[in-house]
Amino acid sequence: MSDVHKNESASTTRPFGWIDGSLVSLCLGSLVIIFVAGLVQVSLGAFSMSLAEAWQAVFDPAVVSDPGVWMSLLLGGALPDLSKQTLVVWTIRVPRVFVAILVGANLAISGAIFQAITRNELASPFILGVSSGAGLAILLTLVVFSGLSAFLPLLAALGGAIAFVIVYAIAWKNGTSPVRLVLAGVVVGTVFQSLQTGLFFFANDLAVVQSALAWTTGSLTGTDWEQVRIALPWSILAVLLALAGSRQLNVLLLGEQTARSLGMSIERVRFALAGVAVLAAATSIAVAGIVGFVGLVVPHLVRNIVGSDYKRLVVGCVFAGPALMVVADVGARLILSPSQLPVGVLTGLVGGPYFLYLMRKQQQLGAV
């Protein structure tokens, strides 16, 4: 924990003393990856377009330099006359990249917070049952309460929040412990996933089944500016709250006894920070469905590069999460081209073995 103490003292003497070369390199490298992968992404699709044409459409002055067009895209409204290439890129393909960026950042931040409040590198929204709760809410809406389909994003977020409250209640025993939270999350996630499987037998409409599969496996197909408008304000709020809580996250990493000696109300802080993590995870689930293992892999990789200080870790996750997500979405489109593989399937194939690696590497889980 000397790394945390060192960065805490540096940040108190200099406002930006926590920024160093490793963090800057990570952020710049992630931006390059996002830019290159995003350019490849906007060139893919049924409407044939070369990389050069995609480049010209992305930087079309009719969009880039016109505030009115940006207002129409971000707030909704009619667009002016644009070329066919520019219209395809900016109304169909660019928002998919933006949604991938927001989803990646939210999942990475959520995983980083969950790992701190449980003091366990194996924790993530997927492991702690949040994703399974959202998936069950999605299936219930599509299969049983189809009249509420218009409120699907809100219901997905609500399902994830309820799942974590159940996990917290199960883990409570004169307080909670990191290990009990993880074990309760695994139990709740398993039960909810079983209920999801059972609900498929009640779906008679093939279109409903396909829609439900897209949500529960995680997919960015068909995303547009509406999803950007849904996710953007909540993503900004989650990032700001995570940065504001970085000091408390650092204290939690020191252990409960040390945190109490410093005057921290552990359960109150842990529950409040868990609320931020649930908000971030629910935001991504509401627009892209359940994308597994991003919240597990990214914080661990960023921690290996920038260290354990949570102010740097959160900033690193904001950049590295989108880079992984945009690359994964490009890979999901290219692997079985012209068919599209749900991005959640690809992240699961990569994240599953990585989870096993972390599980074998972790020497001690802690006392229940």
Topology, element by element:
Layout: H1 2-13, H2 21-42, H3 51-58, H4 61-64, H5 67-75, H6 84-118, H7 130-144, H8 152-171, H9 178-200, H10 206-217, H11 225-244, H12 246-253, H13 256-261, H14 266-288, H15 294-306, H16 310-335, H17 343-361
Helix pairs in contact: 2-6, 2-16, 3-6, 6-11, 6-14, 6-15, 6-16, 7-8, 7-9, 7-10, 7-14, 8-9, 8-14, 11-14, 15-16, 16-17
Question: How would you sum up this structure, described in words?
Answer:
The chain is an all-alpha fold and 368 residues long. 75% of the residues lie in helices and 0% in strands. It has helices at 2-13, 21-42, 51-58, 61-64, 67-75, 84-118, 130-144, 152-171, 178-200, 206-217, 225-244, 246-253, 256-261, 266-288, 294-306, 310-335, 343-361. The longest helix is centred in the N-terminal third of the chain and has 35 residues, at 84-118. The protein is globular, with a radius of gyration of 21 Å. 47% of the residues are buried.
Low-confidence stretches: 364-368
The proportion of residues in beta strands is under 5%
Count the beta strands. 0
Order of helices and strands: HHHHHHHHHHHHHHHHH
Distance between the termini: 23 Å
Helix fraction by DSSP (H/I, runs of at least 4)? over 70%
Structural class: mainly alpha
Kindly provide the radius of gyration, computed on alpha-carbon positions and rounded to a whole number of angstroms: 21 Å
Main sheet?
A: none
Outline of the structure:
This protein is an all-alpha fold and 368 residues long.
